Amino acid sequence: MPDMIFPSNEKPLSGDRIFFSTVYIMPANIITRGLFTRLKCRKVFFFVDASFGTCMASDKMPQLISPSDIFQKAEPLPQKLSQHATMQIAKESVFRTQTNGWQRIISNENIIFQEGQFASAGIVYLLRDERLIETYSGNTADTGTIFNLMFAKND
Fold this sequence. Notes:
Layout: E1 17-34, E2 40-49, E3 55-58, E4 75-76, H1 83-95, E5 107-113, E6 119-128, E7 131-134, E8 140-142, H2 143-151
Parallel strand pairs: 1-4
Antiparallel strand pairs: 1-2, 1-5, 1-6, 2-3, 6-7, 7-8
């Protein structure tokens, strides 16, 4: 179990299986420039789950907590992605919405990671009634998601 975890908004019930996954925390600066706009720089934190490859971004760093006794029994999920691969996922989440070609003259975004400040923490998942619940955001998925994770080959 990691030293620090994301706060849990969903409490485990009796009969729930508890899992945890490593989340890479990557601070970055996103620089936006455009033909009709001034240069802007904003600090963003990317959180990429190394097991599922999901990416969240926030302007604020959440307050991480120490795991309670309940979460000490959590089973680790296999880590499918390296830190470098999670950086690529974070970049793609920014550039997915960016325009290409001649439209880049009008608006363009660049991302600069602060690699010396990377960290990792745990995020807790609950397996309840054939649903996988991510306890920080409350997002749910069906049980097939965890079976795909357990039996798929590493990338």
